[in-house]
Sequence to fold (331 residues):
Amino acid sequence: MEYINQEDRGYLLPFMGANGPLMTGKTMEEIYSSPQEQLELALEMDRRFPGDFIYALDEGNIFCDVLGVPLKKPDYDFSMVVDHPVKNGEDLKKLKVPDPYREERMARNLESLRLIAETIDKPIYISLQGPFTLAVQLTGATRLLKATIKDPEFVRELLEFTGRVVATYAKSVVEAGVKMISVAEPSTVMIAPRFFPEMVVRNLERIFDGLECWRCVHICGDTTKIYPYILEAPIDAFSFDQIMNLERVMENFPEDKVVIGNLDPVYLLGRSSAEEVVLETATLHKRMDRYNNYLMGFGCSCSNAAPLENLEAVSKWGRASYERIEGYLKK
Fold:
């Protein structure tokens, strides 16, 4: 909160997932395989669309990749799971928690993050797949949900394993220089809020306790009944989907934790004009400028095909002074 209140202006957390590769013509795999390419992409993105954080091209499915989950890997978008290999407890026992310093893909990503941290004087922000969402990727949503009733011990062991996977890697990226980690748990919208303490919050505590960084959680969709449970974990911020009314959220949100959000990454940034992006960005800042615990961001990762002029507009106006925003809205 101290960082985002240093100057009398808006602060912006960019969440431009695969926009850089499509813009530069370098494929995801080309960038993932080279720390120097990672650095050059981060520099170019910060030059073209400056924010207040560096959003490195973190590997959204890095855990699935190193655990041997079959993936489809498009050239200019994040990889997608095509099969779920963990059918039962015996399959789970075959998996080992990856050592980030020995597993080649993780170690290379850590080298990339160190290089970016040493070169660019802005906090590095990355998003990591959460333990529950990783569990869904490993075993499939239907199988996991059925197992919560028929085989709760398997579910417990699975979540304990995925929690250790995420926690181990989270510690290593902080050591590499990452300043802010957002744990993304989109799959948790499938479970009733009463299951959150046992199935979600416990692992968040394991990941974040003692971790020397800014700690955030993002969950897509309507999280009205969910985020109060997440606030029981040791987090510094919660990132909200575009469907949420942030002013209503602020009515009951703790003043010592940061609200992040929630420009629409699909219809606004992906399909609207630059003029509409400027208006919506300025309007959201005006609505939220009285809160010291607000950080502008997107409702989720931005479409990789979003027009570049829209990204330039949100970058410029997301960080504009409140005086300038006030003047624009009066026109």
User: Anything to note?
Assistant: The mean pLDDT is 94. The radius of gyration is 19 Å.
